[in-house]
Amino acid sequence: MTVASAVTTLRAGLPDRYLTPEDIAAMFSVPIETVYHWRKQRTGPPGFRVGRHVRYDPADVQQWKRERMAADAA
After folding, report:
1. In this structure, how many other beta carbons lie within 10 angstroms of the beta carbon of residue 44?
2. Is the pTM of this model over 0.85?
3. DSSP letter at 62?
4. How far is CA 73 from the centre of its chain?
5. Are the beta carbons of 4 and 26 closer than 8 angstroms?
6. What is the pLDDT of residues 53-64, one digit of tens each?
7. Are 57 and 18 in contact (CB under 8 A)?
8. Are residues 3 and 26 in contact, defined by beta-carbon separation less than 8 angstroms?
9. Could you point out which of 17, 22, 64, 73 has its C-alpha 20 to 30 Å from the C-alpha of 46?
């Protein structure tokens, strides 16, 4: 079972929970190290800390993706 299939989706197909770095890596088919590099360089989707853990709001991730797609199309 993949991460995406185990998640209930709401809000236009977005998961109804905050995403983990592993979810982001799976979503964009990149190594987890890439997600951590994006965070360190502040070039990836905006995340926030919950204690020691990093989480991502699915709506923010979708917005970040749209911005990247628009930048590539320009």
Report:
1. 21
2. no
3. H
4. 21
5. yes
6. 999 999 999 999
7. yes
8. yes
9. 73
> Which tokens is 18 given?
């905050």
Q: Which two tokens stand for residue 30?
A: 């990149």
**What one-letter code names the amino acid at 17?**
R
The span from the CA of 61 to the CA of 18, in Å, is 10
Contact (Cβ atoms closer than 8 angstroms) between residue 38 and residue 44: yes
Q: Are 60 and 46 in contact (CB under 8 A)?
A: yes
Q: Cα separation of 31 and 49, whole Å?
A: 20
- Residue 33 in tokens: 């190290």
* Partners of residue 50 on adjacent β-strands: 53
DSSP 10-48: ETTTEESSPBPHHHHHHHHT--HHHHHHHHHHT-S--EE
Q: CA 29, CA 3: separation in Å to the nearest integer?
A: 12
Instruction: Compute the average pLDDT of residues 30-43.
Output: 97
